[in-house]
Amino acid sequence: MRSMGPFAYGRPSLWGVIRKSPEDFVVEEQLGFEPDVAEQGEHLWLWIEKRGQNTLWVAQALAEWMGCHPSKVGFAGLKDRHAVTRQWISIHLGNRPDPDWKTCAIEGVSILKATRATRKIQRGRLAGNRFELTIRDWECPVGTDWQSEMDERLGRVAVSGVPNFFGEQRFGDNNVGRARRLFAGELHGKRSKPKQGFYLSAARSYLFNEVLSLRVAEQTWNRLMPGEVAQLDGSQSFFKPSEAETLSGTLDTRLESLDIHPTGPLPGIGEPVVDGDVAELERTCLAAHADLVDGLCRFNVKAMRRSLRSRVGDLKWQWQSEAGEPILRLSFGLSAGCFATTVLRELIAYQP
To answer: Which of the following is catalytic: 80, 151, 252, 277?
Structure first.
């Protein structure tokens, strides 16, 4: 199964290791707002740092530590297990006093600060994430100026962004296959709502990646086609360009500045909002996966749109040396739902 398709800037020829240790992959959540601090608020917000643990496991562990149901715990997004990550997690305490959170002993988890607030943290309510990555153990073609090649690729990514593929971690251990079995009535036994949600999400993500792969191959992932629906950068606002806007050339300027992006389908229930060339391309591509599209509709998943392109915000890089070997340190920001691995795949043929 292909989860990500062609490369926007050609297949990289350089190899590197991106997670030799968790400290080589640092993620910091950016909610885009501050906690509404209130001394009498019913929710305790914890700013945590974790290593080697996933967010769901940490949320469960915090619920057990507090002696409350897991539904009382809130967080905005799932963070990678194989990394050092920092994020807010909320716990509904009601009128209970604050625990001595400094005594909390959960493996791989540190509580950096705590504050009371009036509301629970809701899933998906975040602006994005900031990444600090280290690439090491390079394998490069002999006789090439490979560092200059990497600098050139980084410059192109900084200016033009990358295809907004769902990263391979979205697909887990054959979650698309499990979705197919679920839709065919072949997935027997008890399954939790979160697991079923993973299967449905993997199916939609796979279909989106299939359409995006076709747009990358045709080099239309970063321009508007007839019948397009565009998305404003860093938001969930979509609009259909008028004929006057298309003819005026102002949309080309906005596209070049990464202010707007073309979009692709997250299939489900709902009438198509695109028409023309875009509708025909998506219809043809998705027809090869009718079982997934029909299954998503039968499970009442709502159709949505997603940007085909991701801005790589404030991309900075620096070459350094450790033990006489070159390492590359990167830092950049991505909007919520975008994957750092989709940035890395345009830069290196990486070893996880």
So the answer is: 80
pTM of the model: 0.91
| Homologous superfamily of domain range 162-310 | TruD, insertion domain (3.30.2340.10)
Per-residue pLDDT tens digits for 171-219: 988 999 999 999 999 987 777 888 899 999 999 999 999 999 999 999 9
Q: Where are the domains of the chain?
A: 15-22+129-160+311-351, 33-117, 162-310
Q: At what angle do helices 290-298 and 276-287 cross, to 10 degrees?
A: 100
318: buried, middle or exposed (CB in 10 Å: 19+, 13-18, 0-12)? exposed
Q: In the CATH hierarchy, which top-level class contains the domain 15-22+129-160+311-351?
A: alpha beta
Distances (CA, A) of 340 to 72, 128, 293: 30, 11, 27
- CATH code that applies to domain 33-117: 3.30.2350.20
In angstroms, rounded to a whole number, what is the distance separating the alpha carbons of residues 93 and 116?
Answer: 9
Q: Is 80 a catalytic residue?
A: yes
